[in-house]
């Protein structure tokens, strides 16, 4: 069986992309940047190490210092290269810098890195499950699956974050913690009914906070449904050099930047990665 | 201008190495493809430290970002000597530069066994003794005081068929005394600094963040310490010195060479930009060219 490769190799070294758009979306900022020096075919689920060209360092606690790993949301070939979109929320010193980028600023990046999602095998249903900022890598996947059978299920804290749901053209079902948009509850409440009765012809693609991923993993394991989970772990380098981002799997500790961030759920006893979500 | 450098009889194309454990060339080939070998940024490649037996390394979390630097608590994960010789060494041997293998043992006998086995391999140009990794409980001992270092070299030196580099720990009261002992007992070069011992507490909790409890500090934050120790050690011994610690630019590299280093190494900066060493090399060459023009 032939499959599209899940890893597009990266140019060696860090390069600068130019920010072409910075759009506020509720609690998030969607940054678009034109990358003239990288491949035009990154795989959804792959990520880039990001830093700003200016004012990187010397912020809160004299940070940031290291790059920040972000899966791209969308990638669109354009004259002059590839327009990459990243969904950002100002949480710490690094994300605050990135979310504050303006049109014309330099976005430093290394990538694409890691391995992305496996495309579903027709007539398999694709169930996309995203939580919070974790909806980002599902965008490119959803675009590539347009018209294919399946569903997109998204969970957010409230209306400010649910604004990111507007990026999807696949008419997502939405759940919010406070019920301000869509159903009140968790995205896994939306997933459960989809897993009944079609165990053999569905695959779940999930990205979100550790507790959500663990709930998805457990639901899929119980239903006997394949799942691919895009995990997160603190990374210094993103290309296998630092050995810092290891996560426990059934085969021992693996470097998430190299053998992930997308992992088949059956490799994990738990998606609760130590240190993730910090 | 010929920028070549002699390191213990091995001719290098230039003075730039990587710090052990800061660049995995095998992983980088998967990520960057053929571009890695084509644009290889180091003049010699130092392997990640190997031990006699395989090690899984420390439990996560293993990283903590600090002011202008980072703490790591990796714990020397590696395949062990047999796995290294079988699967890693052939891949590292095909890199376009000389290979330095870093070894660490928990006793002089273990180090001797590693050095003996690695010495037999023609693909290896030099051997670095990691006697200063602060991440493993007993790792401090052999590099922490001159007597221990001398005793280790007395066991290991006769078995070494390659030049030996001793990597000095900055967590010693006087690294220059350890360097003198290394010189007197048969080392061919020294490298420094390894990471500085440090720790961080989990936010809002009164316990260490790192899975290995303590960690090692690296990055620009340590550069002044490194520069001072490189200068002190260079003044104390005649052996070539490989200087490292927070170097991010050609100007920093030039400082370390001025302090007496024969070679310099890029470590943490490669995490931020895998090609950083290539940039440092080009900038350093420009600085040296300019200095010569001004003479």
Feature tags:
heterodimer, A: 278 residues, alpha/beta, Elongation Factor Tu (Ef-tu), domain 3, Rossmann fold, B: alpha/beta, TIM Barrel, eight-stranded parallel β-sheet, four-stranded antiparallel β-sheet, 11 helices, 37% helix, 18% strand, globular
Task: Give a quick summary of the entry.
Chain A has 278 residues and is of the alpha/beta class.
- The tally of strands of chain A reads 16
Instruction: Figure out the total of helices of chain B.
Output: 11
Helix- and strand-based class of chain A? Answer: alpha/beta
Measured by residues with Cβ under 8 Å of the partner chain's Cβ, the largest interface is:
A-B, 41 and 44 residues
The name CATH uses for the topology of chain B is TIM Barrel
With helices defined by DSSP (H or I, 4 residues minimum), what is the helix count of chain A? 6
pLDDT averaged over residues of chain A: 93
Q: CATH H level of chain B: which superfamily?
A: Aldolase class I
Question: Termini of chain A, distance in Å?
Answer: 39 Å
- Please tell me the CATH architecture of the largest domain in chain A by its name: 3-Layer(aba) Sandwich
For the largest beta sheet of chain A, what order do the strands appear in spatially? 4-3-7-1-2-6-5
- Which ranges of chain B are low-confidence, i.e. pLDDT below 50, for 5 or more consecutive residues? 133-139
The dominant shape of chain A is globular
Write down the Rg of chain B. Answer: 18 Å
Order of helices and strands of chain A: EEEEEEHEEHEHEEHEHEEEHE
Provide the helix percentage of chain B. 25-40%
CATH class of chain B: Alpha Beta
CATH topology of the largest domain in chain A: Rossmann fold
What average pLDDT do the residues of chain B reach? 94
Number of strands of chain B: 14
């Amino acid at each position: 069986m032939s499959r599209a490769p899940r890893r597009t190799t990266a140019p060696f070294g860090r390069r600068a992309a130019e920010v072409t758009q910075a759009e506020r979306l509720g609690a998030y900022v969607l940054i678009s940047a034109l990358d003239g020096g990288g491949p035009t075919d990154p795989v959804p689920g792959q990520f880039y190490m990001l830093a700003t060209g200016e004012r990187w360092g010397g912020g809160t606690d004299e940070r940031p210092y290291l790059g920040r790993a972000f899966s791209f949301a969308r990638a669109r070939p354009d004259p002059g290269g590839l327009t990459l979109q990243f969904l950002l929320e100002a949480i710490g010193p690094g994300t605050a810098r990135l979310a504050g980028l303006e049109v014309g600023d330099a976005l430093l990046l290394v990538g694409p890195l890691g391995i992305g999602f496996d495309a579903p095998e027709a007539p398999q249903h694709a169930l996309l499950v995203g939580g919070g900022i974790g909806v980002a890598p599902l965008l490119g996947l959803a675009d590539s699956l347009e018209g294919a059978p399946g569903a997109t299920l998204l969970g957010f804290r409230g209306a400010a974050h649910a604004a990111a749901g507007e990026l999807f053209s696949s008419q997502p079902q939405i759940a919010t913690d406070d019920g301000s948009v869509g159903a009140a509850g968790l995205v896994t409440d939306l997933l459960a009914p989809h897993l009944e009765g079609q165990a053999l012809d569905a695959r779940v693609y999930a990205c979100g906070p550790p507790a959500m991923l663990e709930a998805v993993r457990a639901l899929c394991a119980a239903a006997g449904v394949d799942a691919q989970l895009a995990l997160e772990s603190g990374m210094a380098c993103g290309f296998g050099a630092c050995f810092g981002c290891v996560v426990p799997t059934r085969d021992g500790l693996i470097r998430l930047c190299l053998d992930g961030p997308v992992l088949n759920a059956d490799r994990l006893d738990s998606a609760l990665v130590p240190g993730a979500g910090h | 201008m010929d920028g070549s450098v002699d390191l213990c009889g091995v001719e290098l194309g230039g003075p730039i190495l990587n710090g052990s454990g800061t660049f995995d060339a095998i992983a980088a080939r998967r990520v960057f493809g053929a571009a890695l070998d084509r644009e290889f940024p180091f003049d010699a490649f130092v392997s990640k430290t190997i031990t006699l037996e395989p090690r899984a390394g420390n439990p996560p979390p293993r990283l903590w970002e600090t002011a202008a630097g980072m703490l790591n608590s990796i714990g020397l994960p590696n395949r062990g000597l047999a796995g290294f010789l079988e699967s890693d060494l052939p891949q590292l041997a095909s890199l376009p530069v000389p290979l330095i293998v870093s070894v660490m043992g928990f006793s002089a006998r273990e180090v001797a066994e590693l050095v003996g086995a690695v010495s037999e391999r023609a693909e290896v140009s030099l051997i670095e003794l990691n006697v200063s990794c602060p991440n493993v409980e007993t790792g401090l001992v052999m590099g922490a005081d001159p007597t221990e270092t001398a005793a280790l070299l007395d066991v290991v030196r006769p078995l070494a068929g390659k030049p030996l580099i001793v990597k000095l720990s900055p967590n010693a009261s006087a690294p220059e005394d350890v360097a003198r002992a290394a010189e007197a007992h048969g080392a061919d070069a020294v490298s420094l600094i390894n990471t500085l011992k440090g720790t961080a507490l989990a936010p809002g909790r009164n316990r260490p963040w790192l899975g290995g409890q303590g960690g090692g500090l690296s990055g620009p934050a340590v550069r002044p310490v490194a520069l001072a120790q490189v200068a002190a050690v260079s003044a104390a011994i005649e052996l070539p010195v490989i200087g490292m610690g927070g170097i991010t630019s050609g100007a920093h590299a030039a400082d370390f060479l001025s302090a007496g280093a024969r070679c310099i190494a890029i470590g943490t900066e490669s995490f931020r930009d895998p090609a950083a060493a290539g940039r440092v090399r080009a900038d350093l060459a420009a600085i040296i060219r300019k200095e010569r023009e001004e003479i």
